[in-house]
Amino acid sequence: MTIPTETVTTEPTLNPGDEAAPGTPGAAEDICDVCSGKGKLGDGRACAECGGSGRVMRGIGGG
Q1: What whole-number distance in Å separates Cα of residue 56 and Cα of residue 34?
Q2: What is the pTM (predicted TM-score) of this model?
Q3: Which of 10, 15, 34, 45 could make a disulfide contact with 49, Cβ separation 3.0–4.6 Å?
Q4: What is the Cα–Cα distance from 52 to 49, expressed in whole angstroms?
Q5: What is the mean pLDDT of each run of 10 residues along the chain (63 residues)?
Q6: In 3D, which of 3, 4, 26, 27 has the Cα closest to residue 14?
Q7: Strands annotated E in the chain
Q8: What is residue 13's predicted lDDT score, i.e. its pLDDT?
Q9: 7 three-state secondary structure
Q10: Which of 15, 53, 11, 54 is closest to 33 using CA atoms?
């Protein structure tokens, strides 16, 4: 079975709280402000801001 090239992606999945893709110069992983790095909200649901990972990518460099 051949996968159509339109469905293959090399782009990393970004969460709403990510400012940049992993590996972007001037960006680094940080703790999610919404869930305080836990990955879950107070009601037990996965944090939508970080996708449940507890981490987001943030810009760290100035210019």
Answers
A1: 10
A2: 0.72
A3: 34
A4: 8
A5: 62 87 91 97 96 94 63
A6: 27
A7: 27-31, 55-59
A8: 84
A9: helix
A10: 54
